[in-house]
Amino acid sequence: MSIRCLFKKGAKSCFSFFVFMCLLFGQIAFAQQTPLSGVVLDETGQAMPGVNIVEKGTKNSASTDFDGKFSIKLSSNKSTIIVSYIGYQDQSVNVAGKSNVKISLVSQSQNLQEVVVVGYGKVKKTDLTGSVGTLSAAAITERNLTGPMEAMQGAVSGVQISNSTGRLGDSFNITIRGKNSMNPDSKPLYVVDGAPSDNIDFLNPQDIARIDILKDASSTAIYGSRGSNGVVIVTTKSGSTVKSSMSVTYDSFVGQKDIARLPKMMDGQKWWQYHLAAYYSSSANTAAAVLAGALAGGNTLLATRIANNETFDWYDAVLKSGIQQNHYVNVSGRTDGGVSYNLGLGLQKETGNIEKEALDKYSFKLGLNHKVNDKFSIGANITLARIEQEQGSSIAMQEAFRLSPFYTPYALDGSLTLLPAKLTDATGAFIVNKTSTVNPLLEIANSSNATKTWNGVSSVFAEFKPLSWLTLKTNYSVALNSSKQGQSWGALTQTGVSTGNLPSAKIDQNERFNYTWDNQFNIDYAVKDHTFSFLGLQSINSARYETLSASSAYMPFDTGIYNLGSGKQTSFNLGSSYEKNTLASFATRFNYGYKGRYLLTISNRWDGSSRFAEGKKWGSFPSGAFAWRISEEGFMKNQKLFSDLKLRTSFGYTGNNIIPSYSTINKVDLQTYYDFNGTTANGWLQSSPTNSNLGWEKTREMNLGFDFGFANDRITGTVDVYDRLSSDLLLKQKLVIENGFSTYINNIGSVSNRGVELALTTKNIKTDLVSWETSFVFTKNTNKIKSIYDETSNDVGNNLFIGESIDAIYNYKFNGIVRAGETYLDGALKEGNAKVEDHNGDGKITTADRYIIGNSNPDWTGSISTRLKVGNFDLSASAIISQGVTVFSPFHKNFTDLTDRGRQKLDINWYMPANTAGLPENTIYNYPQPRNEGAYWNNDGVGYYRDASFVKVKNISLGYTFTQNILDKLKLKGLRVYGNVLNPFVFTKYDGYDPEWAGAGLGIGRVASITYQLGLSIKL
Question: I need a surface site. Which of 36, 98, 186, 784 has the fewest CB within 10 A?
Fold first, then answer.
């Protein structure tokens, strides 16, 4: 039958012909599709589910099932497929003439670092346009530290992390690219599995899969109002990347934390010489008069001890070695029903270097993922931590340091005495009568400061992929912090002394809860050499904070915190508070790439905050970034110097709304009492004025960066230069006294941060037997206040100075001691007094001679880490560096304060003029004469500033991984044993506790320590 005949038979025949042709072409098209099946395995031969399979040059795709198997219909029998999976190298496989393939994927050398979390999504590191620092799970756990913040220390350029006190369990300070705000509550935004969190101290480092730190505005702008101080995104281990079979690992280490680098204090005889010098005066200029003054008031036993040099070691009595334990079990796998899981259980126990200080942390982590089908998946992450912390006495260590070597903690009958320097005999007469410092051993035994905390972060998500290029996702997350702190002071404590030797107690309960609901869609599309992606986001966040406190004193029984009602009613103190704020947000982000060479990112976020008044609630935070992968250009193909070269530039805005809730509405929150017709009535006043014009604090940032690789990536690194300007700062402005209020919050001032960052990694040796890698990090940031209330006025009262750092130190500069016969500019000073510099050179000392003598921000910070592997042995070490730091040292404020006579002192040499009292003359030292320091030393504290620069070796670790033949005999998949030492060396001029926390308060600052660990890691 011919085609012509078909047409002659009319419409019915034409329809038949059409059907015939469709079937014919369908058969031809079907014949052109080539079926391909296969399996994807990892290096160990285990099946890999969820691997992406794409036919090159087409949209044909598939993914492996739970057994690592896949099937796909190819458009040609000469096709090439691209096989990809997060954390593994992409493979291009030519499948021409094949119907079944077996593919093995190889882990990327940098594992998860090849993919970067950028907020509501991920991007390949090669396609990144912003400035992001990433830490893998291996990097976080490498040093065997019990907290994630310390594990991050020195690892990312532009991120400054330091221990706040050295005390067990206390938090770390973190600053990303300098301080943007004058608000002390400003800190980075922490996001744990999608949930904003106040901190990440509660996390077990071994539960963390990766940490991504967003630094520039292009990266942080997607978080809008909460991103101006940087964003720390923590991704915990989930079931998304587990293998098909069950895996069990056990990690454990034990350690001993020994005291190290103790400040050198005066020995007994030197303290006695100082004590005599403190009693010297021109009216008592004979040896007998000085001695009589020093021993007056009943000090016969003290005189005997001095004569016999009978001293007591207070260091040894109070300080001890701490013990550290860490145990972690992880179970991961995939069920037959397709649910992948990751379960982690952790136990951390640690004791401090003072008795009773202890920290117990129990962690639970569960990650679940279920890929229902190729289009729909669901998952959940639950992280729960129980922390029990005992901080004991807040003053015990300082009291121990304050006591002279000639005082002992014991009374004449051998029992502990409350006041070691106020010792009496059986008749009640003083035999030692000096300082009223409390016995630290009794202070420790009778004080308690216990905090019990529940921390939880949970999130659930559902993801639907109706089309290959469209993904819809909803994520709901919650974060909870509930704590109860109980403090009690027995009769035999310093607090007990102040309450007539009766106990006191206090309870504080706090609860923070927030939830976040994010709804987003992602479009990912490619057309030949062009790639497009688009994110649309709607988000809502609500946070609630509640407090409750109660205290009482003069309690008849020492029952700790459990009988507050037994105290004296007039000492009762009750308080409670409630605070809530919400944030509504919308965000978009557009990414475009051309041939993988030219990359563009544009984003904007709109935030509406309940903290601000109507008309001021909403803020817009746009950003843009561009990257050029120069190494992908045609003119770079034949060169061998650069294996990677990318130029990045970005510009954007972020914001800050950190002010107390209800700051923009009138409220009565100050209780008062008044006479109402002869009766005392309860009333309320407004504690601070309202500012309904408060608006967003905004930060503008420009960033220029280079990513580079040399010699086939044997040398890789990044360099970033940035310029940030924060304006309309939310600050408490001082008011004139006639106003009736002292301060109110206003949008005033601006702060600039400019800096440069460098991260460099070198693979020095890379052979089958030996590998050696070294990493360097360098950061320099300059922080300056550009304006306060206007562009010219300083605020001396708030220590704010235009052109200087937020943390500038403004004072006179110590300039030595007034010598004998010296005529000093300040006529009020005399021999032995501390003098200061005539800074303006006008020949006299006035307040105009005060100036900026330094600041507590380092000039630059850095770190060095190295890893050497020889066969089955591995050796690693790391060090952090902080240079150009000036601090006001509370330690020196106490232990070089020469106004008191009976307390212990740092081992210093003091000025002593020529005298007839038999005291050694010292006229060349930089400490003033005891009890004759002068106003600048006493009132202005000019002698208590110190250079706290340091180089600290953080850890040195040596490990051995057992060979496969031994593992086979033990029926194990992996076994490694190691030894590790933490903080073994510190190089510094600072002679207090530790330069890292030199600015810590005297009561909570702690001595330095070295921790020795032994550990093992087992994989079943």
Answer: 98
